[in-house]
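Q: What would this chain look like folded?
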Amino acid sequence: MTGKHVVAVDLGGESGRVMRATFDGEHLQIEEAHRFLNIPVQVGKTLYWDALRLWHEITTGIKLVAQGASSIGVDSWGVDFAFLDRDGNMLANPIHYRDRSSEGMMEWVFERVPKRELYDRTGIQFIPVNGLWRLASLARHHSPVLETATTFLTLPDLFNYWLTGSRTCEFTHATTGGFFNAHTRNWDFDVLSRLGVPTEIFPPVVQPGTRIGAYEGIPVIAPATHDTGSAVVAVPTTTDRFAYLSSGTWSLLGLEVDTPIMGDVAFEANLTNEGGVYGTFRFLQNIAGMWLLQQSRAVWAEQGHKYEYSEMMALAETAEPFGSFIDPDDISFFQPGDMPAAIREFCRETQQPVPETDAQIIRTIYESLAFKYRYNLERLLRVSGKQVDRLHIIGGGSRNTLLCQMTANAIGRVVVAGPGEATALGNAIVQLISLGELADLAQAREMLSRSDELSSYEPQATTRWDEHYDRFAAILQKKQ
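A: My prediction, written as structure tokens:
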């Protein structure tokens, strides 16, 4: 395929890749140039991201597709950050969002900034991964890293800085940490000051599509640097009556809205408002997605059973349906470890049949995820007042045909699955709009809606799924 090509660097919690996206004026084709593992590193009691290894892999991949490239864009998972010293050097590897140093910090923060006030300022849900808890922990313990820092950068903005020298933070990623004011569209310096975090370290915030510099002569454009923000760009729709599910290590289920939705009901439901592209917000709920399968797969591999994800899906189909359910977001599933054992313990505690085989464990995860999608979709629609006809599942999880069908059955709506490479596509689309190759987001989405990659799933056996949903909802109530 000939035409302009851009480079999309997409970093996920399990792996990263550098992609070449080529646009010929009518079609956008994407191909993987370099894939690499993203392996956290435990040092003492602290869990870090290996930023230097990621940088090496990023630049290795860029070299493979740099010739003739029109621009480069970087996106990553949300909430994590790094610091620079006065000479522009990274002070320490970024702390992983699953690190235990944030435990107990919510309560410490709420003593200084009341919970409801914090929500009214940021519109961000309260979950253990929020960057605010790690920032507050560094301030509380007088971290020499924080006290020495001259610049705060979100994780993709760290790589943008190494690419270009630009000390800026992009809007969609900045909103994810829990210390960005949804009304002023800037860092919430008052909240940060009350927690003892130095405010002078926070750089200017730029919008998606901003050219921030160049790397070896190639323009670097900030896409939606939060991976979910980029994924939502690539929803293949010609209507606004849709919900989306960005399915990967995390499942991000939400709606695209023009302004943040806050207030009593949103606060009580713990719903979040993250920045989107071109003036939009992502009104959504985080759900622990393929993390449960990834951790189970790792445990079974250590035991000598090395499953491909396709084999796990086939195994699930052999198990009896609706045996037991879990709350995928229960705190017992948050830390790395023996996920099958944690699932069995949850079922014992909630007085359900205990899944014994690998197939039963996988089926329990799938069905529980499908029901949790329904639970949160109903809350999002109730609070927003929005009507939707279909759910678009985008990202790697869109290739899981069994889970896609289960989700359609559970929510009673059509599911459209694909594109699988939504994050990299969305990253590339924002670059192409900035370059003037695409007119706007509507044109890009209409183009994607004609893709042969998309699959549709009609709801099946909805009466039976409705009956068992009541059981699932009762288990959620029991655990709250």
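The domain at 235-418+450-480 is CATH 3.30.420.40 (Nucleotidyltransferase; domain 5).
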